[in-house]
Structure formats: structure tokens, C-alpha cells
Amino acid sequence: MNSPFRDLFSGLIGPRRGLVEAMTPRRTFEDVVLPPATYRALNSALAQIRHRGLIFEEWGLGERHDAGLGLAFNFAGPPGTGKTICAEAIANVLGKRLLVVRYAEMESMWVGESGKNVAAVFRLAAEQDAVLFFDEADAIAGRRFTAVQQGNQREMNTVVSVLLKELDAFAGVIIFATNLAVNFDPAFERRIRTHILFERPGLAEREMIWRVQVHPRKTPLAPDVDFRALAERYAATGGDIKNAVLKAAQFAADEPGTDAERMIHQRHFEEGMEDVLAARRVMDQSLFEENDPGNPLAALGGPAAALTQLTTQQETVEENLSTLAQRVIEVEDHTTTLANVLTRTEEGRRELEIQLGTTNVEMEQLSGAIRAAVNGIEASTRRQSQRAFVLTVAALLLAILALAVAMVGYAV
């Protein structure tokens, strides 16, 4: 089906083209130089793989544990410490193909497609009986968001949930490689059988890495080449040493003279490593030299320590945001309660106003009654006063009349 919509529907039938890099492993553990502790951890991981049938089938543990039968390993450490080479070496030992998955190719612009891509990758690994290798796994297995506010956060949480589900059901070998294991979602800790730390190589390992990068017979080395001195001067990773050797060969090949006269000198290796370190400083976006006390990364102990500290700060910020969100909910609840109280108070105020209005009317009526009673009393008092005056006048007239009669009788 050749159409513009092919990528849109491809997740329904299988992994999208370019999503998985399938490779036949060629490198072995002889191609990588590791610290002794890392070698021991890798041998333990290989022992688990070799004895898987004995443990889960003959000893019956597969019947007791129907989930998590796959062998999941986490390779954690700085870039260039041999994680990818070791994943290829494990697949080589097992005689299986290696399926390399990178999240940049797995992420989709279509909502829900990233989760389908994860499921398709596991399905392909099961069908081909291949070793599944997730490079830069912290990008896909990162901590889930506790307070989802955007669509991409919800999509990331869905991808992690799908990955955990597929990991439980997968019965093969899966390897995660990460530079920032601290970013892993805690749910992966119990699902990953073994965590292997890939540390920066020590002095002896660095000298050996310098030596194995060149061909013992064909590479023309000048007499002044001193790999021990290079190992002492540069505390570099295996990946950086590899790039420095290739750059040194380029510098030497560009020297004047015939091909037979050209040789790789110590200065070529030094220039190559300085070039690699300069490029790394650019990638770290550092504006100062690493040993400059004004370098903010140096103050934090270097880029790796700075990233770890920033990750810790991010976790603290997320926890604080979660706590703040809870406080906001509590404040909203209190605000709702206060609004209800204010509503009830307003209703009570209006009822009180009505009652006060009724009381005012009753007071006015009572005042009118009192005024009428007072007026009546005043009128009654006036009438009683007038009656007493009349009686007094009448009594006086009667007295005068009686006196007059008496005087007439006396005269007669």
C-alpha cells in the first residue's frame, strides 16, 4: 500500500519502517574492555540466560510464576562505556538477532500511536526470537506524571503503562540502556532482573582500550606513541578513545609525504582527544573550561553530577506541584464552604430585615395606640375638671341661696 496514509495505518499491522534496527551481531566480549566488577555482573546475567530452561521449566518455577518470565537487564552508565557493544555481544553469545529500538523513532505525532509502536516491537521480537535492546531507555521508561495537565503527558503515561504490560508478558531477553537510570519509573525496578553499572574505565582499562583500537600489524605507529601516557592524561570513556583514535588517523593521513612515510604520532592522538573533548564541551553547552571554577557545571561536580542534581530537583518540584495541587483542592473546598456560609448568612440577613420590618410596623401601631390612650386620658381629665368646677359653682350658689333665705326669715 503506497499512499500518504501508510505510516498512519502501519501501526495496526506491525512496526513502522525505521522503528527497529535489526542487526546480526558480530562483536563479542573480546571487543570491549570493562572494569572487573562489570565483567562479573555480565557473567551473572549470561548465567541466568543459559540456565533459564532449568530454572523455569525443570524446576517448575515457570508454573508458579506466569508473569515476568522474561530476562530483563538494565545497563546504566555514562555514554561510551560499552553498553551497546555488550548488548550486541550477549545476542552474539545466544546466537540471536538484535533488535535495536530508539525512542526518537518510536515516538509518534499521532495520539495513541506510540503505545501501539511499543506493542508492535515486542510482538516482532517474540516472532523472531530476538534480543530486544532499548537504547536511551530513560526517554521511554521515565517516571509517570502524577498531575497530568497536557496531552503529551497523558501520552507518555500511556506509553509507560503499555511498556510495563508488555514487559510482564514478554518471555525473551530484553536489555535497557540508559545514561540516567534515576529517571526510570519505580515500577521498572522489580520487573528488571539485573541492574548492571557501566562505570568509566580506570587507568589500566583505558590503556588497554587505547591499544585495542589500533590494528596490531597494519596501523603505522610512530616510536613516540605512549598509550600509558595517554591513559594517564585523559580520563576518557571507551567511546571517546575510539573517536580520538579515528581522528588521529585522519590527522596523520593528511600529513605531507607519501603514504609509506605517514605515521600516527603521539601528537596526533593528543590532538584527536582534545578535539573529542572540545566537541563534548559543545554538546554539554558549556561556555567555560571544565576546570574553571566559574563553570556552573564544575561547581556541581561535572555534567553527570549536574544532570543527577537537576533530576533530583525535578522530582522535588513534581512532588511540590502535587502537594500544591492538593492544597489548591483543599482551598477550593474551604472556599465552597465559605460561600455556602455566606449564602446562608445573606438569607438570614434578608429574613431578619423582613422580621425587623414587621416589628417596625407593630411598633408604629403600638405607638399610635399609646398616643390615642394618652389623648383619651387628657380629654377625660379635662372633662372631670370641668364637672368639678360646675359642682363647685352650684354648691356655692346653693349656699348663697340658703343664706338669702335665712336673712329674709330673720327680717320677718
Task: Summarize the structure in words.
Helix 8 (151-169) links the parallel strand 4 (131-135) and strand 5 (173-178). Strands 1-3-4-5-2-6 form a 6-stranded mixed β-sheet, with helices on both faces. Mean pLDDT is 76; it is low at 1-14 and 286-305. It is built from 14 helices and 6 strands. The protein has 3 domains: 6-197, P-loop containing nucleotide triphosphate hydrolases (Rossmann fold); 203-305, Helicase, Ruva Protein, domain 3; 320-394. It starts with 5 loop residues before the first helix and ends with a helix. Helix 7 runs parallel beside helix 8 and helix 11 crosses helix 12 (266-283). Helix content is 60%, strand content 7%. It is an alpha/beta fold and 412 residues long.
Helix content: 55-70%
CATH architecture of the largest domain: 3-Layer(aba) Sandwich
Average residue pLDDT = 76
Q: What are the low-pLDDT stretches, counting only 5+ consecutive residues below 50? A: 1-14, 286-305
Rg, Cα atoms, Å? 49 Å
Given helix and strand content, the structural type is: alpha/beta
Count the beta strands. Answer: 6
| CATH top level label of the largest domain | Alpha Beta
* Number of domain units: 3
Task: Give the number of helices.
Answer: 14
CATH topology of the largest domain: Rossmann fold
Largest sheet: 6 strands, mixed
H/E element order: HEHHHEHEHHEHEEHHHHHH
Strand order of the largest sheet: 1-3-4-5-2-6
Task: Say which CATH homologous superfamily of the largest domain is assigned.
Answer: P-loop containing nucleotide triphosphate hydrolases
Ends distance: 167 Å
* Range of strand content: 5-15%
Shape: rod-shaped
